[in-house]
Give the backbone structure.
Amino acid sequence: MKLAVSGKGGVGKTTFASLLIRTLSDQGRKVLAIDADPDANLAAGVGIAGADQIVPIAEMKQLIFERTGAQAGSIGGYFKLNPQVDDLPDALSAKLDNIKLMRLGGVKKGGSGCICPESALLRALIMHIVLRRDEVVVMDMEAGIEHLGRATAKAVDRLIVVVEPGRRSIDTAGHIRRLAAEIALERIAVVGNKIRSSADEAFLRAHLPDFEFLGFLPQDDRLIEADLKGISPYDVDSPARDLVKEMAEKL
């Protein structure tokens, strides 16, 4: 099962992804967790010790040079567009229980559509992970689907968009669906987060009528406190755990 999680920054996307990853791990499934959002820290959400010390792959200059034949940050020139990556998930992942986690990092682009060695390595890695690995894969994406291409999109079982009651969050969901349509990724589901009342749930259903809703998570101060304290949301007593378990069963 290959899952991608996206949504506007601040909606609780990484919190949901962390809960889903830990839930699947506790069910005995092997999970490959991919942190593809440079502005998030999925490792901390999952509860991996020393999460802030994990070096993103996009910043591993020596590795990028060895695999592509070009220096990270360079634009133009020659480098391998299909570098070897099949050994990286096992060699470079942080581990917890049944979870292996990789942090991709961001690519500093020199211009729109720029192709650079680090982006070539990350794209090849994502393609290998989605098409060749046999674990459950959960990818915590940016507020978009930049790392996915047409070839990998066909193998993604579900793109899960996390939304909160609010216009900007709804607009982002529409934007993500348009991006997904460009690469023929049509299996999209929505998770409503920070729900304070039935009115919030009704608001989201009314404004996203064409989306499949996977479920809803309540506004919960315990999850906010967990984030502030650097504790995994899975390790606090919250109804979100059971709700995400129900969503995992649906998936």
About this structure: The longest strand covers residues 188-195. The beta strands are 2-6, 31-35, 94-96, 99-103, 136-140, 158-163, 188-195, 212-218. The domain at 2-250 is CATH 3.40.50.300 (Rossmann fold). The chain has a mean pLDDT of 90.
